[in-house]
Amino acid sequence: MREITPVFDYFVIATGTSRRQLHAISEEIDHCLEDELGDSRMGIEGYSESRWILLDYGNVVIHLFDGETREYYALEQFWNAAPQVPLPWQKSQEPPAESPSSPSS
After folding, report:
1. What is the CATH number of the domain that holds 38?
2. How many domains does one find in the chain?
3. Residue 62 predicted with pLDDT over 70
4. Range of 57's domain?
5. Measuring CA to CA, which residue among 59, 65, 62 is closest to residue 19?
6. Which three-class secondary structure state does DSSP give residue 72?
């Protein structure tokens, strides 16, 4: 992302299916980054509303959405010029499937 914005290096987007799940994801990210990697969160927004939780770790910004809000804001389309970083379980750098009914590998 550094080529596109000087604000952060990585941008992570995830979707939860309920308020409780979004809170659990947020808390687990905090736990892993703080306890295991020694990285402290600089800010959090949207936790009480739980439709879009933003976790700011400085060089990494994490967006946790409910499905409807993620679709509405479509951040993947807004930031589509950014290179995608493959996750360890992905075989290639192919973008995620557009349709949830598409088969995944």
Report:
1. 3.30.460.10
2. 1
3. yes
4. 10-78
5. 65
6. helix
